């Protein structure tokens, strides 16, 4: 028989052993909760301190793994890529079987995609995403949100890279081979975009509508889908039924313009207008209210980057309108002094045309210049297409050419018969709009360059173009025109 | 001469008489305290029986001690309780046996003492002379002659009883008595009684004449049942009994010997039986006999409508047999009272109902057998939360319409032990998302063996100390896929209500068919028609791509979802009556009205749906597939099964059911989806099946109008094409 004292000692010993374990668990959970709260409140520095404390004090806990993920993302955002990468590596290499390692693989893919400088690097960024379903199969990890995220993100990259077939499969696997998750609407949306990219209008539209029906669909995605559906109606269904793409044109009231010269339209309908008469660059909201006015002189071009940042080019610099910073550009050892047009590419590269040097340059994230074309003196406008390809409108050659881009098989350029080609716009389906200021018309070419109609000089509703200066098109397919003689912003809906 | 009757035979008779009662009582465990206090006389009988056994053996002398002990026990007890006649008989037998033993031992003096004692106890004692020696018989006769005399009584009425205590005269009036003086009692119900002092002497037999005078009429009431209370004019007069040497064939008896002529209301009553009432006419002073009265048990009828053959019925845990009368629903005849009826059928499941049965009333119960869903356990260290969850599940799931909830929570721990896993394994599986080596097949086999159900629930608390959540594993009976559905559950009424709704939901449903693609394009008012299927309801109504629907049967609609809701709301009024639904449409040509012929079509369960418990769906579909009276088309069941098996990773099962799907040709939903699913299953099987997978996916990819899940579901072809490209 075991003596009573010994039994009591054993029980007490067990309690002592259990108590610290439970207490550790509690403390780790508390620290994680606190760090997340601080992060939500925008106190990023304090949040980082808490995460680091958690990772140091309870290195073996699952909360520490979550802290490492949060820290990696935080360091990445603040530009400390090496540290971020180190934390991700620690998880993927040190805890290869943990479900959080799957999330680390996803982070690795995201980092890789964000720093990709060319098509190949962007394509390579899919590899970490694609590893997740292989390393963390649904047979072994039936409920793993990171795997669904990885599939969706891989599909989104495939779409960017102009591989809709590949993308469709990746989205399909996220939809049909995974348990339902908050990623489902994005997967459905990606599949819809893949089908639309392949020209399958009906199935694509059907899926877009289904995205709207998902309870998990957030407002941002809902806006994107609604925008796409509007575009689909204007630029797909109506032309197929021989109906005009736009039924009316209206002059925007409440925005005083004197001599609008340049304009850029973001996908979400925000506008950038350079008005020489006002000496201002105006930023308008999607419902055409003036949001900011930026006094400038000698603006040669304005544009939006693909991620929605506004830029303006003056003769010798590019101005980031969000913070007013100016960046002088130097190519082949000499500063550029006669910028004529500019654009920002999908990999955050900057394209500019220098009229004086008659050349087209590309500057990467680090400011390294590359001459893309040496006979670009007559390029009057630039635009970036859906797959990151650069479109050039050359007045003298009277053509639109395409350079680079992420698509594996980029579309070719095409020639026009415009009398005075002046401005260029491209929509989300790849159709190109060319403003001819001699005829006051806008010619529409489909993605392959085939003629798809024209509009002007009299617009639906009766407004006649007098001196159109620039055009733009938003994601919903609304066409915008600025006319310096009319001193108006016109919207075709 | 009679040999003493062996008591073992009597005990057998008693046992047989008790047997039906014992059999009926079988399901209930009889507790010691339930038994009546044993009768003192019954307790000593075994000593006699043992003595008789030893007497008939080689060690006959040893029986003396046993008979002596028996006699001592009788003597000890008779001071407090008069022994019954049977004991008196055994006492006489004991003394007789004793005399024989002593005779065989040559103890003549003891033999004489024994025989004298015997004749004093029973002067009319008779023995079988063939079984004793002639010398013993001579001795017996000699003693009898010396100690016993007799008298003869002639009585009027002749059936009057002549007796001295237990010694009674025979039919010839001869009364044998020990030598000496006795008082003889002459009695007869309804008559005066008489006493006569007589002297029994050796060698003389005096005769006495006794005439009794009639005082009252005698009513003898016989009842088939014993212990029936007899009332005359509402006054209790006693209960019938089998005592007094009555022939059990006649029933129990009560003699009323004080009745004067007149009319009496006779009532016979016993609990559990309907009271018998009659009018008794006593005309004059003579004997009357009533009966035997056979009381009818009180009973009500419970009609079990829709009772399938082969259903076992239990009332308060006892098996009862319904009566199947021709042309009528089966019924149970039950004594009045409250019953818990439990019906079970090996294939169709269980049904339980409480019923209150009243005498001569009929209750009808619509039997709806439901498959059992068995709670195998609520596991985890937080006993308080475990108890709460068990109670929540019991109260919540008892309301299930489709399943009968059975609580076998005690079986969970042994099942896990037999399967060789810990509660923590299940918790880790649920919480980390990583599949542990959980032997679901083994767990399910244990469950099938210990608590046979259609579906099983196993709850694991999320925490051992303070649980507010639980993980519920739901899996079906074999041979359906053992992989469980995992449901996270808050320990609240709402949590249970949600789970209950999941369990009660059917995967088989219909929805209106439009056969068109509508989208909410914000470029105009009302949903935009993007696509119209050829020859479908939308096409037949005249809808075309580019139209916008602005009104459905008087209801303004702004979105595609509102159109769908408006059509769903009109299924009863239009789809089932053939009425068309008017729709206001704006097209390029202007506004106009179309009439939609509204039909409905099946909805197939989605491959990934949080609101579907696939294990429950698998069981429902299997039942539907096996139901010959099912109204659901086989191909709809098969298509659903294909999805459910694919979801559960049972590729073989999926292929088996999908290859049998014979969907109608040309329908939007059917063949295309079946081909697609078949392609998915074969592609997942891989290897040699890849070529066949391509064939099926190729067929699905070629059908541009085929839809998934419903005639207005997502298109099959683009998905098939995407899958096909991988294989190619």
Main attributes of the structure:
heterodimer, A: 493 residues, alpha+beta, four-stranded antiparallel sheet, 12 helices, 25% strand, B: 728 residues, five-stranded mixed sheet, 34% helix, 28% strand, elongated, disordered N terminus
Folded structure, characterized:
The complex is a heterodimer of chains A (493) and B (728). With 493 residues, chain A is α+β, with helices and mostly antiparallel strands. Helices cover 39% and strands 25% of the residues of chain A. Chain A has helices at residues 4-40, 44-57, 62-77, 81-94, 99-114, 119-124, 126-135, 145-160, 164-176, 184-197, 201-213, 219-240, and strands spanning 249-251, 260-265, 271-275, 280-284, 290-295, 299-304, 310-314, 317-320, 325-328, 330-331, 334-335, 339-344, 350-354, 359-363, 369-373, 379-384, 390-394, 399-403, 414-415, 421-426, 432-436, 441-445, 451-455, 468-473, 479-483, 488-492. Chain A is globular, with a radius of gyration of 27 Å. Chain B has 728 residues and is α+β, with helices and mostly antiparallel strands. Helices cover 34% and strands 28% of the residues of chain B. In chain B, strand 2 and strand 3 (167-168) form a beta hairpin. The longest helix of chain B is centred in the first third of the chain and has 21 residues, at 85-105. Chain B is elongated. The interface between A and B is large, with 48 and 38 residues.
Radius of gyration over C-alpha positions of chain B, nearest whole angstrom: 44 Å
Average pLDDT, all residues of chain A? 92
Strand content of chain A: 25-35%
| Number of strand elements of chain A | 26
What's the total helix number of chain B? 20
> Which bin fits the share of residues in helices of chain B?
25-40%
Order of strands, widest sheet of chain A: 1-26-25-24
> How many extended strands of chain B?
34
Enumerate the spans of chain B where pLDDT stays under 50 for 5 or more consecutive residues.
Answer: 1-36
Secondary-structure-derived class of chain A: alpha+beta
The description of the largest β-sheet of chain B is: 5 strands, mixed
């Amino acid at each position: 028989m075991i003596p009573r004292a010994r039994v009591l000692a054993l029980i007490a010993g067990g309690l002592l052993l259990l108590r610290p374990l439970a207490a550790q668990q509690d403390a780790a959970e508390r620290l994680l909760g606190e760090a997340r709260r601080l992060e939500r409140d925008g106190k990023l520095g304090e949040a980082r301190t808490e995460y680091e404390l958690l990772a140091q004090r309870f290195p073996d806990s699952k909360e520490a793994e979550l802290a490492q993920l949060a820290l990696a993302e935080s360091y990445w955002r603040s530009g400390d890529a090496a540290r971020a990468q180190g934390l991700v590596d620690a998880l993927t290499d040190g805890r290869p079987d943990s479900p959080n390692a799957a999330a680390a693989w996803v982070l690795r893919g995201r980092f890789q995609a964000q720093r990709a400088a060319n098509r190949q690097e962007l394509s390579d960024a899919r590899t970490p995403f694609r590893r997740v379903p292989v390393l963390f199969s649904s047979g072994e990890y039936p409920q793993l949100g990171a795997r669904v995220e990885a599939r969706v993100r891989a599909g989104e990259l495939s779409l960017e890279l102009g591989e809709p077939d590949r993308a469709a499969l990746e989205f399909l696997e996220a939809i049909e081979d995974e348990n339902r998750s908050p990623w489902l609407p994005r997967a459905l949306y990606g599949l819809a975009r893949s089908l639309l990219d392949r020209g399958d209008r009906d199935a694509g539209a059907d899926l877009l509508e289904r995205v709207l029906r998902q309870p998990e669909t957030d407002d941002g995605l809902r806006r994107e889908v609604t925008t796409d559906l509007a575009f689909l109606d204007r630029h797909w269904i109506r032309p197929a039924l021989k109906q005009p793409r736009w039924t009316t044109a209206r002059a925007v009231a409440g925005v005083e313009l004197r001599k609008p010269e340049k304009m850029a339209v973001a996908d979400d309908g925000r506008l950038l207008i350079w008005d020489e008469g006002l000496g201002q660059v105006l930023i308008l909201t999607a419902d055409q209210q003036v949001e900011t006015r930026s006094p400038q002189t000698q603006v040669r071009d304005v544009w939006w980057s693909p991620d929605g940042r506004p830029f303006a080019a003056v003769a010798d610099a590019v101005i980031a309108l969000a913070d007013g910073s100016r960046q002088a550009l130097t190519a082949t050892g000499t500063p550029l002094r006669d910028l004529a047009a500019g654009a920002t590419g999908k990999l955050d590269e900057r394209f500019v045309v220098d009229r004086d040097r008659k050349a087209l340059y590309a500057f990467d994230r680090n400011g390294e210049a590359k001459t893309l074309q040496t006979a670009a003196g007559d390029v009057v406008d630039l635009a970036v297409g859906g797959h990151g390809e650069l479109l050039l409108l050359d007045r003298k050659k009277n053509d639109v050419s395409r350079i680079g881009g992420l698509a594996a098989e980029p579309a070719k350029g095409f020639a026009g018969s415009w009398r005075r080609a002046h401005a260029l716009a491209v929509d989300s389906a790849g159709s190109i709009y060319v403003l001819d200021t001699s005829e006051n018309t806008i010619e529409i070419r489909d993605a392959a360059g085939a003629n798809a109609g024209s509009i002007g000089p009299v617009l639906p509703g009766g407004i006649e173009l007098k001196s159109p200066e620039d055009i733009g098109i938003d994601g919903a397919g609304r066409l915008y025109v600025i006319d310096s003689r009319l001193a108006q912003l016109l919207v075709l809906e | 001469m009679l040999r003493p009757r062996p008591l073992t035979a009597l005990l057998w008779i008693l046992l047989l008489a008790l047997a039906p009662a014992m059999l009926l009582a079988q399901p209930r465990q009889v507790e010691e305290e339930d038994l009546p206090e044993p009768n003192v006389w019954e307790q000593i009988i075994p000593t006699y029986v043992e003595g008789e056994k030893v007497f008939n053996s080689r060690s006959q002398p040893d029986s003396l001690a046993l008979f002596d002990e028996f006699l001592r026990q009788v003597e000890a007890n008779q001071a407090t309780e008069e022994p019954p006649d049977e004991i008196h008989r055994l006492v006489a037998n004991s003394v007789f046996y004793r005399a024989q033993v002593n005779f065989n031992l040559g103890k003549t003096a003891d033999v004489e003492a024994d025989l004298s004692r015997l004749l004093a106890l029973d002067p009319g004692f008779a023995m079988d002379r063939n079984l004793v020696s002639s010398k013993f018989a001579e001795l017996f006769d000699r003693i009898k002659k010396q100690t016993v005399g007799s008298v003869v009584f002639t009585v009027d009425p002749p059936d009057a009883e002549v007796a001295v205590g237990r010694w009674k005269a025979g039919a010839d009036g001869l009364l044998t008595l020990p030598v000496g003086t006795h008082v003889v009692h002459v009695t007869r119900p309804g008559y005066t009684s008489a006493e006569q002092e007589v002297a029994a002497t050796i060698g003389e037999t005096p005769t006495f004449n006794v005439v009794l005078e009639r005082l009252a009429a005698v009513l003898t009431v016989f009842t088939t049942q014993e212990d029936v209370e007899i009332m005359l004019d509402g006054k209790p007069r006693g209960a019938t009994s089998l005592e007094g040497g009555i022939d059990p064939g006649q029933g129990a008896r009560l003699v009323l010997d004080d009745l004067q002529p007149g009319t009496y209301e006779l009532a016979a009553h016993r609990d559990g039986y309907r009271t018998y009432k009659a009018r008794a006419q006593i005309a004059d002073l003579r004997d009357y006999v009533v009966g035997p009265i056979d009381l009818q048990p009180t009973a009500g009828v419970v009609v079990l409508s829709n009772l399938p053959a082969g259903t076992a019925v239990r009332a308060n845990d006892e098996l009862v047999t319904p009566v199947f009368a021709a042309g009528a629903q089966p019924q149970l005849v039950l004594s009045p009272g409250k019953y818990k009826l439990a019906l079970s059928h090996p294939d169709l499941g269980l049904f339980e109902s409480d019923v209150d049965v009243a005498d001569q009333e009929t209750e009808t119960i619509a039997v709806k057998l439901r498959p059992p869903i068995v709670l195998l356990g609520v596991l985890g260290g937080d006993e308080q939360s475990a108890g709460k969850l068990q109670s929540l599940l019991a109260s919540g799931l008892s309301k299930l319409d489709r399943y009968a909830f059975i609580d076998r929570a005690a079986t969970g721990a042994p099942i896990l032990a037999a399967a060789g896993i810990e509660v923590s394994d299940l918790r880790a599986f649920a919480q980390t998302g990583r599949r542990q080596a959980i032997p679901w097949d083994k767990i399910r086999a244990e469950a099938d063996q210990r608590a046979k159900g259609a579906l099983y629930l196993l709850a694991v608390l999320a925490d051992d100390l303070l649980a507010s959540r639980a993980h519920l594993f739901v899996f079906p009976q074999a041979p359906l896929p053992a992989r469980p559905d995992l449901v996270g559950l808050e320990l609240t009424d709402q949590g249970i209500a949600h789970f209950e709704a999941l369990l009660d939901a059917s995967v088989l449903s219909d929805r209106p068919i439009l056969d068109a693609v509508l989208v909410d394009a914000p470029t105009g008012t009302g949903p935009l028609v993007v696509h119209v299927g050829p020859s479908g309801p939308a096409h037949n109504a005249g809808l075309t791509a580019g139209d916008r629907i602005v009104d459905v049967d008087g209801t303004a609609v702004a979105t595609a979802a509102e159109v769908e809701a408006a059509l769903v709301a009109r299924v009863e009024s239009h789809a089932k009556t053939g009425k068309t639904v008017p729709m206001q449409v704006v097209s390029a040509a202007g506004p106009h009205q179309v009439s939609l012929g509204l039909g409905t079509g099946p909805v197939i369960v989605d491959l990934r749906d949080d609101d579907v418990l696939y294990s429950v769906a698998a069981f429902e579909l299997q039942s539907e597939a096996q139901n010959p009276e099912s109204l659901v088309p086989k191909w709809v069941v098969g298509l659903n099964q294909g999805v459910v098996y694919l979801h559960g990773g049972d590729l073989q099962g999926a292929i088996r059911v999908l290859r049998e799907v014979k969907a109608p040709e040309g329908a939007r939903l059917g063949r295309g989806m079946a081909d697609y699913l078949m392609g998915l299953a074969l592609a997942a099987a891989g290897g040699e099946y890849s070529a066949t997978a391509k064939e099926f996916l190729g067929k699905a990819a070629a059908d541009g109008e085929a839809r998934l899940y419903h005639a207005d579901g997502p298109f099959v072809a683009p998905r098939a094409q995407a899958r096909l490209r991988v294989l190619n």
